[in-house]
Amino acid sequence: MVSIRQRRTFTAQEYLQLERAASYKSEYFHGEIFAMAGASTAHNRIARNIIAFLFPQVRGGGCEVLGSDMRIVLGDTQGFSYPDVVVVCGGFQALGPHSDNLTNPRVIVEVLSPSTEVYDRGEKFEQYKGIPSFTDYVLVAQDQARVEHYRRGADGAWAREVYGGFTASLRIDSIGCSLALGEIYERVFDAV
C-alpha cells in the first residue's frame, strides 16, 4: 500500500502568527509556506549598495527605502514576500493592527539567485502586479553587471529595459532616482 502525504496548507492569519514567532523568514503563497535560504555575499552587497545609493536620493522627498526584512502583502492577500529592496512613497500603509505588512510598495528590487530567478521573474512578478501602488520592478543579476527594469505605463502595460556594463545607468522616474550599475555592483566583482 502506498501512502500519500498531503501538504498542509495555512491561512494567511496562521502564516502571520507563525512568522512573527519564527527565528527565520518564510514567504507565503496560496496557503503554502516557503522557508527562505540565506543569501550570498554578492547578493548582500548588491542589496546594500542599492539601499545606500537610493537613500540619499529619496530622503526628505516623501519616499522611504526599506531592506529585506520588510514583508509586503501580495496583491490579493494570498501571499506575503520579503523583497530585497522596497521603496514606499506617500506614507507607510500596513495590513491589520501590526505595522509589519506593507501594502503600498512603489518600487520592488529583487537580486536574482539561481534558486529563485524563475519564481522572481514569473509567479512572484504576476502577484506583485496586483498591488495598485506598484510601478517599478528591478531585477538585478549577481553574476554579471546586468539589470532589468520593468515599468508600468499609464495604460497599465509593462515596458522592459535592460542595462548592462558598469557605465550604464538606470533611471526610476516614479521616485525621481537613478542608479549607475557601477554603484550597484561596487565591491561585488574584482574589477569594480
Descriptive report:
The radius of gyration is 17 Å and the shape is globular. With 192 residues, the protein is α+β, with helices and mostly antiparallel strands. The chain has five helices and 13 strands. It has a six-stranded mixed beta sheet with strand order 3-6-8-9-10-11, covered by helices on one side. The termini are far apart. Helix content is 22%, strand content 31%.
Mind sketching the topology for me?
Elements: H1 12-21, E1 26-29, E2 32-35, H2 41-58, E3 63-66, E4 71-73, E5 79-81, E6 85-89, E7 101-102, E8 105-111, H3 117-121, H4 123-128, E9 136-140, E10 146-152, E11 158-164, E12 169-172, E13 177-180, H5 181-184
Parallel strand pairs: 4-7, 8-9
Antiparallel strand pairs: 1-2, 1-5, 3-6, 4-5, 6-8, 9-10, 10-11, 12-13
